[in-house]
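Let's do one together. I've listed all components of the complex below, 449 residues spread over two lines.
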Amino acid sequence: MDIVSTLRVNRTERPFTADTRTTLLDALREQLDLTGTKKGCDQGACGACTVLLDGKRVLSCLSLAAQCEGREVTTIEGLARDGKLHPVQAAFIRHDGFQCGYCTPGQIMSAVALLKEGRAGSDEEIREFMSGNLCRCGAYPNIVAAIREVARLGSESQ
Amino acid sequence: MFPVEFEYEAPTTVEEAIRLLAESGGEAKILAGGHSLLPMLKLRLAQPPLVIDIGRIAGLSGVSEQDGGLRIGATTTETAIQDSELVQRLCPLLSETAAHIGDQQVRNRGTIGGTLAHGDPAADMTAAVLAAGGSVTVQGPNGERTIPADDLFLDMMTTALEPDEVLTSVWVQTEGPRTGSAYEKFANAASGYAIAGVASVITLAADGTVARARIAITGVGSKATRASGVEAALQGKRADDQTIAAAAEHAVEGVDLIGDLHADESYREHLAKVIARRSIQRAVGRAATKS
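Okay, and this is what the predicted structure of the assembly comes out as:
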């Protein structure tokens, strides 16, 4: 059975038609050509598919697209503004927060949400609240360093 | 893997959801946060003809004070419970337990009603609601009824809910004076699920003895259950380390222990006793400092 639906992705209305079984992840990648969001385990364990739903980080592989109708989705493609990288994106590059890069969009979306949640008080807290995002290359120390720096710069600019 | 084909409905009232369930002959599945259901659909462990999304029903989520306890709507997320000032103040066990579930992304979507209706034997919130003297309200074609948490979990992934009933809310007791609680678990490092998890709510009498103990255990058997042997061993005693350690020895009494590749029966039993001891110690420590 097909559903006709609209997602609001990165501040743009995106109508699509898909089977009822389509997850938010598959709708983004297959229907809307937004392939920045990655499919890792497809069962909610790895965090590679993390996007923001109404500003909160969620696993797009464990949400049906139909559940998200009328809600605001932000993907990695929606972070940069006017050709300028989001501070977390820039920090990941500065600190070499990745190797192969496959988990990176999920890591960055998760980190953006973590900073908004105020969970970057210490390295330990950052590690705990990034625990839903796995990196098989083991770039964790650099990921933590990138997040720590954005948290510090953020608190200095306030 | 893709799920077997299903129809999708998103009713806006509980009555409509119940009608859809009844029309499917109880074959449909209720979708809340989907963090247990979607993996089951993808693995084809569940093959419902219809998925009923209750996420658009107004009034099913939120926390409020009711009848000397807290009423928590079925679709309230674990994050909302973790961060709720009301829960942290009146039933901190639930906030602490919510923080142990999965990771932040999972907690942002997973719901308390979903986890209780699913009845996973290694879930965390099942033990917390048992220890908190909780109950659930369910609604079906013949109206509403309340099921005490003690009667809710029947077996692995099997609850007392009828196929045509929807779990609408959860109620838990407020932790009163001289009462402390704790949730302690030994988690599977990969999944985060409890290999052994113990929730404790302890009330101390004015003389420092245990006036009431409610202890529940998860992850070790086919369902979450009260550890009544531990409770009995604490009742009326002074809660010193020796008494607590002796009581914790009863942790798996009456439990049909499960063993798997993560932990065999004897290791689970050992973990259960250690985790029970730590959980009770922390709960007693908190009770002692709370007037």
